[in-house]
Amino acid sequence: MSDHPIKDDVSGVDTTGHEWDGIRELNNPLPKWWIYTFYACIAWAAVYWVVMPAWPYFWDGAWHHTKGVIGYTQRNEVGNELKLVAAGRAEVMKQIAAMPLQDIVKNDNLMEVALAGGKAAFGDNCAPCHGSGAQGSKGFPNLNDDDWLWGGTLSDIETTVTHGIRWEADADTRENMMPRFLDDSILKSDEVNDVAEYVLSLSGHSTDAAAAGRGGAVFAKNCVACHGADGKGNQKLGAPNLTDQIWLYGGDKATVVETISHGRGGVMPAWGGRLAPATIKELVLYVHSLGGGQ
């Protein structure tokens, strides 16, 4: 309903002339400060439209936008920030490349950067074989434990990462290869069976004591040069410890027989020719930090 404007008896303010169920609407004007602020915002918006990129428009078959008189873009801001980050990282990478690994470990700031960079480099280059968590798989070592084929010191890991294992393109790669005892007629099949039982006995898994006894003599004649008389291996030769519970290819009888018969020779790329020296160090420090570094 509507009525003629009247002055409200209580507030002394004119009404708008509108009434709903006996309730009249007052015609209170907005405060001056609010009106001025509103006009200022309108003026600010007009200036902003001119100064900053704002208005979209369709031209020549594509959408564009006004660039603004100052030419500002968020893309340029992000690009400049990325340049600053890259410059800062480049300086840190120079320090990492120039500093010995043992000294980086003692520098908390550099170590923090190195571990973060090493984790990223590991994900990009190493995870396809060793797993995203470095847990490894059949034929690819678990890097979280303390069982190392070629040694777990910083220097050992650096050599392995840099030159790889059995990588033909690197003259300094780690070369030692396990013989194919059955394929090359070094041992007969019954001797392979016996030495497999002996190897299993070293970790308490043999089920044939007589065969293990015979296999001990075969082992002493053919295997101690690499694995040692006690079967605990030799990291200088990449020969694994046969007395623990850790198996790279599997510790069941059939797999051990297969290993002895046909040999093993996993290949790891030499990253020295692919990655920058600082990145190599980051990888070394990250792998060493996983829990098994010596």
TrEMBL record:
Transmembrane segments: 33-51
PROSITE patterns in the cross-refs: CYTC (PS51007)
Pfam families tied to this protein: Cytochrom_C (PF00034), Cytochrome_CBB3 (PF13442), FixP_N (PF14715)
Residues reported in the UniProt entry to bind heme c 2: 178, 223, 226-227
Residue span, Cytochrome c domain: 113-203, 210-291
PANTHER family noted in UniProt: CBB3-TYPE CYTOCHROME C OXIDASE SUBUNIT FIXP
Family classification: Belongs to the CcoP / FixP family.
Protein name: Cytochrome c oxidase subunit III
